[in-house]
Design brief:
Helix content: over 70%
Strand content: under 5%
Number of helices: 7
Radius of gyration: 23 Å
Largest sheet: none
Number of strands: 0
Order of helices and strands: HHHHHHH
Structural class: mainly alpha
């Protein structure tokens, strides 16, 4: 392998490792689960609401070619992002990322800790606003995937006692689900490797 190739490979690994330090897999999985479950419960609310139509999926199109939604449609979508608990996940990523950044840089440069903490504290308000940008992005996605009537039906669910209870239990629920999934995935992988080795051995292959 040439020096150029090795340098490129090392740089890629370094970037990958740095990103992993800032946002671990478990945090990513937790966010994805919250988003998936948020969509799922919103869909159930729409389907169970009296008189509400099936979820209306828009034709495939890029965001750039999609016209700006009506103000009432967008407002209802933003309410859904917040009421469903999705926005809480977006907001949590800012301090989590700052914490990982601190750990990454101070492991080899502990002398940076005090000044870095001060800098990040000053930057915090600016980067907290990024969460609101993500809320707006998610709301626009909802307007492309769901009609205003369907979004309002989902909003109604989250305004109900059952909906509020769902959002309240999300953090504890997803923490337990993530732990359970990690154990399940490990067992799944071990069993799959074992069975694959057995069957490959029957075909004359050692793994």
């Amino acid at each position: 392998m040439s020096q150029g190739c090795r340098a490129t490979k090392n740089a890629t690994v370094a970037r990958s490792s740095f990103s992993s330090c800032l946002l671990p897999g478990s945090d990513t999985l937790l966010l994805v689960l919250r988003l998936i479950m948020g969509f799922a419960i919103a869909g159930c609310a729409v389907l169970s609401a009296g008189g509400a139509s099936d979820i209306c999926f828009a034709e495939s199109a890029t965001a750039a070619s999609t016209p700006e939604p009506a103000a009432s449609h967008l407002a209802a979508a933003r309410e859904l992002v917040v009421a469903s608990g999705m926005s809480r996940s977006f907001a949590a990523l800012v301090p989590q990322t700052m914490e990982r950044l601190t750990i990454t840089f101070t492991q080899t440069r502990p002398d940076l800790a005090q000044d870095l903490s001060s800098v990040l504290a000053e930057l915090r308000p600016e980067f907290d606003k990024r969460a609101d940008q993500m809320i707006d992005t998610a709301a626009h996605i909802f307007t492309r995937l769901m009609s205003e009537a369907d979004i309002k039906a989902a909003d109604a669910f989250f305004e109900s006692q059952a909906g509020k209870k769902y959002v309240e239990t999300q953090p504890a629920f997803f923490n337990e689900v993530v732990n359970a999934m990690q154990d399940w995935q490990q067992t799944l992988a071990q069993d799959l490797v074992s069975r694959a080795r057995e069957d490959m051995k029957k075909k004359g292959h050692e793994m």
